[in-house]
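Researcher: We're teaching a course module on how sequence relates to structure. For the next exercise, students receive a sequence and then see the predicted structure as tokens, so they can try to spot secondary structure elements on their own. Here is the exercise chain.
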Amino acid sequence: MPEQTVQEQIVSQEQIVPYEELITWRSRMFLIRITPFLYIVSLATSVAFYLVTKDWHYFLLSSPTMLFPAVFRLIPMDERRYNLKKAKIEAREQVKQIKMLEEKIKKLEKFLSQQQTAQLLEERVKKLEKAISEQHAARGKMPAISSQQEQ
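Model: And here is the predicted structure for the students to work with:
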């Protein structure tokens, strides 16, 4: 059995890092190095403009922390963050679908209750008509026919 050299053993033990992960970490390190520099430049320009104009509003520009949300857009997403974001989007879509279905169910329930109410009213009207006709039959009188029923 041929023995491996020390260099071959080291190469075989090293993990191969995916290209995207390598670029992600390089981007992160670049931003970690450049952020303090940008903060110092921002602070220096704010002081310089204050000394020239004597307007304190330039100190509001000294904090680049307002730009940090933009930094996250510059860094490529790793697979874990991508899957998390994808799951959040899918969850939002499911919540929207559930809300739409709940609204449809409420509309259908309202429609059904209206129809049930209409059916109950029709049944009551029929019962009342039947009761009235029974009362008239019991008395021996025929109900007067209205002019609308004649036509």
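Model: If you want an answer key for the exercise: The chain has a mean pLDDT of 77. The longest helix spans residues 79-139.
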